[in-house]
Amino acid sequence: MIKKLWRDEEGATAAEYGLLVALIAAIIIAGATALGQNINTKLQGVADTIAGAGG
Prior knowledge:
about 0% strand, mainly alpha, about 95% helix, 2 helices
């Protein structure tokens, strides 16, 4: 019975999928954060240019 449980890989497959999902989620969050900061910086530059032109 112990040998059968040792060779059973169904649980490991579910754990591997869980790790993959967590890794993909972390990459998406990091990418979205970096992209958001980049967009914010560019929009702030546009706002500063508009404010400088109006005054």
